[in-house]
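#data-curation
PF: Archiving a pair of folding outputs for the training set. Convention for this channel: one message per protein, sequence first, structure tokens after, nothing in between. First:
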Amino acid sequence: MEALTTLKSLIVVLSLYFNPVTPYEDNVTTTNLPRDIAEDAALTTVGLIFKYGFPVEKYNVTTQDGYVLEVHRIPKPGKQPVLLQHGFLDSSATFVLMGPDKGLAYILSQQGYDVWLGNSRGNRYSRKHVNISADDERFWKFSWHEMGVYDLPAVIDFILRKSDFPKLHYIGHSQGTTSFFVMCSQRPNYNSKILLMQAFAPVVYFFNVRTPFKTLLKNSLDTMSFASSTLGLYELLPNLKRLSNFSQTACWEHVQTHKYCSNLLFILAGYNEPQMNMTMLPVVYGHIPAGASIMQLIHYGQILKSGVFQQYDYGRLANFLRYRTFEPPRYNLSRVTAPVILHYADNDYLSAPEDVETLAKQLPGIVSKRMVPMRRFNHIDFIWGINSKELLYSHVISNMKKIELGR
């Protein structure tokens, strides 16, 4: 029954996606939705922040290897900076799209923080390079390894220079935790620039992943690698105008197909319908997927298959030429000395409690780990859950205040 639900949801959500499309346009609206919902589905992150009356700034940050990342800010000059980093196929919008009362970025701003929102290379806001076009296959030759080695360090250095602070708070969701642990293991000097790292649904180990896509991903690695290298399929699910239009019709709670939109999220993340604001589904699908490299997905698949948190596996010969070893080097988590708090959930299909425990034992800088006290809390509730403010964000802010006071 679950397999049938998975298949139906995929067919409905992706049927229009793979038709001929045009690039996403920021002013897409339709008339079949309430005006605010249609507008929020179409606005950019900057547009959303401005609409709800918060100050907003936009910066371009260039990485050491030439990628141009768009960084968003809800400024409070002179206040402690905090960097929020999104997950796979997501963007900075994830922290604001639920509105001022529910969005973590707004809540932190209201608490007096200088809030910065990152965008990983390849998503809708970071599709530029100083020398290479996003239409060039070479642009997409990256995984979350490069995000940890190049993207996060560049953004962190930019924020600290701009704010004139020696350290910042870091909050990452899903892939935003993976890239952080890569950064601190590969470039350990960045540990000293982190006041406190709080991980939402940390993704490092996959021994206990429960999503039905686990087997599909593990068994499709060779196919995906072939498609990427031979067929030139290197960009994964970019943000497109047709999908945005679809989200504003098929995902509206007053049409029958909206259940497939929610089911697809639940199949990936864990079922918890009471925490999903169904009215906001068109907004969610207006902003995700936000685009990625297929190598990011392949890299996760490799970790799933091998059970080892290691660098990208290019094949034995290519590995030897790149790493001087036939197997990819492992990430040394003993070098992650920054203070870390792990937030996890019992019903998270992608970040199981057992896997979080495995990670926690390897982090010398771990301060604590906390399971969100709701049995059905899932992977996406960390960012969009109706009660996340009370169940999670209040504790996150308390942790930040405590470490600032040296407790």
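PF: Second:
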Amino acid sequence: MLTALQLTGRDTSHLIEWRPGHWLQPDVAKALEKMQKAAQADGVGLDIVSSYRDCQRQLAIWNAKWLGQRPVLDINSQVLPMESLSDKQKLYAILTWSALPGASRHHWGTDMDLYDKASVQQSGRTFQLVSQEYAAEGPCYALCCWLDSYAEDFGFFRPYAKYQGGVAPEPWHFSHKASARLMQQQLSLTCLSDCIQALNIEGKRVILEHLPDIYRRFVQLPDEEKP
């Protein structure tokens, strides 16, 4: 049984450092190691953009977006005019691409964003985590196709494979199914509410007002995608 601090990205005692700066649960690290070697054997690069992200890092991203210091995109990756949005509109706009601090799957050590580092470098382009990088003609297309075929063999799946009214599609985001299931089963609305109450987070009032809906739409996966 994990603690509330571990579930909400405020304690890393259940994680190991798989690569410098990348912390994962031990079982996840073993599975990822096997998947990376299999991809390399097939001539495909598989590297981590990001893995564990603590609550304070997610909080910094959230507050910067709320204050207009970082761009906020709509479902079509177009920049939104945040100054013209209500607090409720800002809340749901940010949630489309950025998890609520305390509720990110990146807090668990079970999830990671993947890319093909060598192909990106060879392309000479500035890399961004957007769907175009994983589509045909994108530097991560071969990796995306390989993962379509083999990720499940190593216990991984895409939690945001398609848009269903919550988080935007993220072809780069993979989750270790068995490990993530245990985390999701233990995270509760009460646990998340307590975390938000403790944070110096922008928009706290409107977040708490809509937290049950946020939890349902952006934290719990649709039934067909639950790990």
